[in-house]
Design brief:
The chain is mostly beta strands. 13% of the residues lie in helices and 50% in strands. The chain has a 19-stranded antiparallel sheet that branches. β2 and β3 form a beta hairpin.
């Protein structure tokens, strides 16, 4: 088993320009069946991730659950200079589907506290995913996963400055990000052994937020909605933002250059007037449709619309929509 796995990983790395592994050796341990990898490099258009080593293994008592033991540190290079990412205590587990081509069934990832060049970056992050039926509501979707994501006190200023190589403009962003999100993501293929190359790697087609809470400095909001990629790869869809005060959100948009500073107060009055207007429900492929509950007492419900490569908050344009692919 270990020899076959080591040979397969070498074959995958040799045929995949986005993955390189300097050495793969069998573990040969009691209680763990797997391999030790050294000198790993994952390359994407956004940059490269280097891991000095990692162990991929499973227990004979649970042969469908794979474990990935990560090192204490990794190196990230986004093209603006390499930085060292401290991972803290990590946990990475994947349950596979034997009757589904060994495609991913469940995933659990956790790390923290995180550091960047030894300076604090985040208290921690956790991601859990569970395979569900893809349904028919998202075109070309071959797989779907319910996700639960938690990000605790992420220093956005430090992260953006390190990845961009220039922190001068990004200091407008409040530092500490707290995020708790639940939702569903649709993919064009299920992650698994047959989809590891750049040509076959699964791509996200749509994301639904059924409950998300975000805190960023003075900004606090709940989010419900769904976005997908249009024919140009830009995000399209509708997200409802529930917040007691739109002013911090508008000020952040102005600080980032999305909105002229001179219209912040006027935009705030416009949004306050439409904060309780009705929002139509979004149809769902399976189960109940996605509805946007009425705002709570003292809360505004603001529609963030993404369409035609642009995004707007109510009637206020915010600039280009992000690209999903």
């Amino acid at each position: 088993g270990e020899t076959l796995l080591a040979r397969e990983l070498r074959r995958i790395a040799e045929g995949n320009p986005a993955l390189s592994i300097a050495e793969v050796t069998e573990l040969r341990e009691t209680g763990r069946i797997g391999v030790h990898m050294s000198g790993l490099r994952l390359t994407r258009a956004e940059g490269a991730l280097d891991l000095p080593e990692a162990d991929l293994w499973l227990s004979p008592l649970a042969p469908t659950e794979a474990h990935l033991d990560l090192p204490a540190q990794a190196v990230i290079d986004s093209g603006h200079g390499a930085v060292t990412l401290g991972l803290g205590s990590t946990d990475a587990r994947m349950r596979l589907r034997p009757l589904g081509g060994m495609a991913l069934d469940r995933i659990a990832l956790g790390a923290g506290p995180l550091t960047l060049d030894r300076a604090p970056l985040a208290d921690g992050l956790e991601l859990n995913g569970r395979h569900v039926a893809a349904g028919t509501g998202v075109a070309d979707a071959a797989a779907a996963y319910d996700i639960d994501l938690s990000v605790r006190r992420l220093d956005l200023v430090r992260l953006v400055a390190a990845l961009s190589g220039d922190g001068s403009r990004e200091t407008a962003i409040p530092s500490a990000l707290q995020l708790e999100a639940q939702g569903r993501v649709w993919l064009d293929a299920a992650p698994g052994p047959g989809h590891l190359t750049p040509e076959t790697r699964p791509a996200a087609l749509a994301l639904r937020l059924e409950g998300a809470k975000v805190t960023l400095g003075p900004l606090g909001a709940r989010l419900i909605g769904q976005v997908g990629a249009d024919e140009t790869g830009h995000a399209q869809g509708l997200i409802a933002l529930y917040t007691p005060d739109a002013a911090p959100l508008l000020q952040l948009a102005a600080d980032l250059g999305w909105l002229p500073q001179g219209v912040v107060k006027l935009a705030g009055r416009m949004l306050k007037g439409m904060g309780e207007l009705p929002m139509p429900a979004m149809p769902a492929d399976t189960g109940p449709e996605l509805t946007f509950p009425a705002p709570a007492q003292g809360e505004l419900r603001l529609p963030l619309t993404l369409s035609g490569g642009r995004m707007s908050l109510g009637p206020i344009p915010l600039g280009p929509a992000p690209r999903l692919r």
